Amino acid sequence: MAVTDEIVATWRNPRRVLARMLAAGQREDRALVYLLVAVVVIFISLWPALSRAAVLMPEAPLTQRMLAAFLGVLLLVPIAYPLAALSHLVSRAAGGRGTWYGARIALFWALLAVSPLMLLRGLAAGLIGAGIQLQLIDLLVLAGFLWIWLSGLWVAEFRGT
């Protein structure tokens, strides 16, 4: 199934999608690609807001803002691995029987699956700017991410897949 189809299916039933991914076997290359693509999409989602800020506050040029944002988003890569490991350890303490890989794929897939909402958030930040609308979208992004991540983590740790 195409990744875009999997993202849509994840929003309908995240547990089923992650169970299917785990049943396909351990593919560390796939997990890393999910993380890297998520980082790229999150970076792209920042462009409208960065452009708006560069117009409203021209003392920092757009290229400088984009480089700083890229380096900031790139920090997700070394942070994601320990976060996945921590989630696995917490799950293990709660009785989970999963693997380190399952915890990684649950987190990395959640980051990628929430990327369409991140793009929506970026458009709102660029077109509307700060306000209640952006805060509501931020809450939606956070809720969606946590729902997909925790659902996937439950499958990875407690269903024994």
* Helical content class: over 70%
Question: What number of structural domains do the residues give?
Answer: 1
Continuous helix count:
9
The parts where pLDDT drops under 50 for at least 5 residues are: none
Helix/strand-derived class? mainly alpha
Average residue-wise pLDDT: 89
How far apart, in Å, are the first and last alpha carbons? 20 Å
Q: What does the largest sheet look like?
A: none
Label the overall shape.
Answer: elongated
Cα-atom Rg, whole angstroms? 17 Å
What order do the helices and strands follow?
A: HHHHHHHHH
Strand content: under 5%
- Count of individual beta strands: 0
Structural commentary:
There is one protein chain. The chain is mainly α and 161 residues long. It is 83% helix and 0% strand. The radius of gyration is 17 Å and the shape is elongated. The protein has one domain (3-158). The longest helix has 27 residues, at 132-158. The mean pLDDT is 89. The chain contains 9 helices and no strands.
Task: Supply database-style keywords.
single chain; 161 residues; mainly alpha; 9 helices
Question: What is the topology?
Answer:
Blueprint: H1 3-12, H2 14-23, H3 28-45, H4 47-56, H5 62-74, H6 76-93, H7 100-113, H8 115-127, H9 132-158
Helix pairs in contact: 1-2, 2-9, 3-5, 3-7, 3-8, 4-5, 4-8, 6-7, 6-9, 7-9, 8-9
